[in-house]
C-alpha cells in the first residue's frame, strides 16, 4: 500500500507550490502598489547580497528554504527517506521535481486549469485517494504491532514459507547453437560436444576444458562454475538434468535453447526450514505485513458497511 515516489513527489510539489503561492500573494498584497509609488532616483549600484544558506531554491521572489524541503522529506515513509539519504543525487532530484511542479502548476493556474470541471474532478479523485491512504496509514496500519509470541506462532504455523529450497552447485560447458544454423552445422557442433564429453570421461579436467571451449562468457573464466541455484532458475531441460545428478556425477549431452551442455554437479543442498532465531526479524516483518493487511481489509469493509455502500457492477457492463 505504499505510494510511489513519483506520485508523492508530484503531490507534495503541488502542496508546497500552493503554500508558496499563497505566501507570495500575501506579500504582494501587503506591499505598496507600484502605480502609487513615485519613481525614485537611480541609486548607486550595490553589491549583490550573499546567498542565504537556508534557501535551497528561488522562484522569482519566492523561496524554498531548508525547512520547507524538510517538510517535503517528512511526507515520505521512513524506508523511502533512508533511500533518499543514501543516494547523493536523490535530494537534488527531489528539489528539481518540486520546483518544476510549482512552476508548471503556476502556469496551469494562470490559464485557469484549476477551474476546469474535468480537471477539478481529477484533482478531487487524487485528493480522495491521497487522504484515504494517509488515513489508513496513520489510523490503522501504524497502530498494528506484532509481539515476539505472535511472530513465533506465525513461524510455527507457516514453516513452508521459511523453507530454503533444494539447491545444486554445478558447472557446465556450453557449445552454442545459433538459431539459424543448418542441420549439417548443428551436427558438427554436437560432435564437438561429444568429443569434449569423451575427454572428460577419460579423465581430462572439466574446468580447463570449460575455460578453453565453453561459449558461456559468464562462467567460461570460472571453469564453467554456475554456483548454487534452485529450481526455476535455469531452463527446464538444463534444470531437470542437473537436479537428477548426484555430486560428482556427469551428465550426457543436454540440449536447450542455447545449445548443447555438459553438466557436472559438485554439491547439493537439501531443502531445509531455516531456524526461527536466524530469521526472526524477517518473520516478524512478514507477520506484521499480513496482520496489517487483515486489519485494513476489516476496517475498509466496516467503513463501507457503515456508509451503506451499494455497488452495481452489472450497470457498468451494460454501458457502451
Task: Provide an overview of this structure.
With 320 residues, the protein is an alpha+beta fold. 53% of the residues lie in helices and 14% in strands. A hairpin with a 3-residue loop joins strand 6 and strand 7. Helix 1 (5-30) crosses helix 4 (90-110). It is elongated and about 80 Å long.
**Number of E-state strands:** 8
CA distance, first residue to last residue: 32 Å
Portion in strands:
5-15%
Annotated CATH topology of the largest domain? Chitinase A, domain 3
Shape type:
elongated
Mean pLDDT: 87
Helix/strand-derived category reads alpha+beta
In total, the number of domains comes to 3
According to CATH, what is the class of the largest domain? Alpha Beta
Percent of residues in helices comes to 40-55%
Order of helices and strands: HEEHHHHHEEHHEHEEEHH
Over the alpha carbons, how many angstroms does the gyration radius reach?
Answer: 32 Å
Largest sheet: 4 strands, antiparallel
Major sheet: arrangement of strands: 5-4-7-6
Low-confidence stretches: 1-46
Q: Report the total helices.
A: 11
**CATH architecture assignment of the largest domain:** Roll
Layout of strands and helices, then pairs:
Layout: H1 5-30, E1 55-59, E2 62-65, H2 66-74, H3 78-86, H4 90-110, H5 117-139, H6 148-157, E3 163-164, E4 167-176, H7 183-201, H8 206-213, E5 225-230, H9 236-244, E6 250-255, E7 259-269, E8 272-273, H10 276-306, H11 313-318
Antiparallel strand pairs: 1-2, 3-8, 4-5, 4-7, 6-7
Helix pairs in contact: 1-4, 6-10
Amino acid at each position: 500500500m505504499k505510494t510511489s515516489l513519483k506520485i508523492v513527489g508530484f503531490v507534495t510539489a503541488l502542496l508546497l507550490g500552493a503554500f508558496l503561492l499563497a505566501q507570495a500573494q500575501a506579500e504582494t498584497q501587503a506591499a505598496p502598489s507600484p502605480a502609487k509609488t513615485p519613481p525614485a532616483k537611480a541609486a548607486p549600484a550595490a553589491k549583490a547580497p550573499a546567498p542565504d544558506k537556508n534557501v535551497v531554491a528561488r522562484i522569482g521572489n519566492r523561496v524554498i528554504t531548508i525547512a520547507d524541503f524538510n517538510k517535503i522529506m517528512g511526507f515520505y515513509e521512513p524506508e523511502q527517506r533512508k533511500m533518499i539519504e543514501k543516494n547523493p543525487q536523490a535530494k537534488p532530484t527531489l528539489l528539481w521535481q518540486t520546483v518544476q511542479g510549482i512552476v508548471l502548476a503556476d502556469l496551469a493556474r494562470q490559464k485557469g486549469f484549476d477551474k476546469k470541471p474535468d480537471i477539478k474532478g481529477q484533482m478531487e479523485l487524487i485528493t480522495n485517494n491521497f487522504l484515504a491512504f494517509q488515513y489508513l496509514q496513520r489510523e490503522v496500519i501504524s497502530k498494528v504491532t506484532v509481539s515476539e509470541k505472535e511472530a513465533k506462532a506465525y513461524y510455527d504455523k507457516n514453516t513452508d514459507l521459511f523453507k530454503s529450497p533444494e539447491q545444486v552447485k554445478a558447472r557446465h560447458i556450453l557449445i552454442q547453437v545459433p538459431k539459424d544454423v543448418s542441420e549439417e552445422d548443428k551436427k558438427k557442433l554436437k560432435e564437438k560436444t561429444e568429443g569434449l564429453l569423451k575427454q572428460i570421461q577419460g579423465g581430462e579436467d572439466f574446468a580447463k576444458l570449460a575455460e578453453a571451449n565453453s561459449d558461456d562468457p559468464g562462467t567460461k573464466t570460472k571453469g564453467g562454475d554456475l554456483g548454487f541455484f534452485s529450481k526455476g532458475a535455469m531452463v527446464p531441460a538444463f534444470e531437470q538434468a542437473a537436479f537428477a545428478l548426484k555430486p560428482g556425477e556427469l551428465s550426457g549431452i543436454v540440449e536447450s535453447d542455447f545449445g548443447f551442455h555438459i553438466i557436472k554437479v559438485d554439491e547439493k543442498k537439501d531443502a531445509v526450514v531455516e531456524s526461527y532465531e536466524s530469521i526472526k526479524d524477517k518473520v516478524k516483518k512478514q507477520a506484521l505485513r499480513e496482520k496489517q493487511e487483515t486489519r485494513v481489509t476489516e476496517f475498509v469493509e466496516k467503513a463501507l458497511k457503515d456508509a451503506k455502500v451499494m455497488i452495481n457492477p452489472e450497470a457498468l457492463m451494460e454501458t457502451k
